[in-house]
């Protein structure tokens, strides 16, 4: 995930776009934080157990309005509204996840985030993740590195936390289309769980990406992930120093026009990546004797 388009060639000032995106994410975060304790207006979304609340739509309307005011020509792909067209032939497109972790909010669990990504054609060039619970924001510009709260540089720590070199803490994420009878997902998740100290299933992938970028966890594995929240988090982690590969170990191309089948990933600290990829490969060979991450 290295830059392929020089920033100066883009038809937008990325420093200004980062400022706009941070302000929009934080405004939406304030709306969410003020509303999570009240009536949520929860309703079903699809048939897979997912839900949407009035907070989702209110936060999305706020973000879209701010983006439209700053960039009226840009296209927008929003979680609840879908594709919102911009000017004909426009190359810049925003991805908006106004409330990543809606199911958590619906049951009173304060684990959620706001995510925005800006793409040039299909390639993410800017990502912002805001945590309304802590009030912290992280952002990244492709090729320019990542920043944490107050704009301070964010770099993955050089070493894992004590005791985690051989016992990593991982996060798992999967798309809404993955059902309980998906044997590939079951085999991969089970194999990972046997080889790590803990595996988190946060149901808020952006929270996990920020944790990886900070070094709070050591890796994330994604199976048929959703595209709307993927670019912001993956770009943040990559610019902080995490490594990303496809599940088969091949180079990872994070482009929003790729099918979900090509977006599965292993993202991790560089020193852990090969071991996680080996585990992912072994999940597809159940006849083999499982080996630990330490072996």
Q: How would you write the strand order of the largest sheet? A: 4-3-5-6-7-8-9-10
Structural class: alpha+beta
**Molecular shape:** globular
Portion in helices: 25-40%
Rounded to an integer, what's the Rg over CA atoms? Answer: 18 Å
| Total of DSSP H or I helical runs spanning 4+ residues | 7
**C-alpha termini separation:** 28 Å
Please report the total strand number as a whole number. Answer: 15
List the secondary-structure elements in sequence, H or E.
HEEHEEEHEEEEEEHEHEHEEH
Largest sheet: 8 strands, mixed
Uncertain residue ranges: 2-6, 286-295
Determine the mean pLDDT. 92
What fraction of residues sit in β-strands? 15-25%
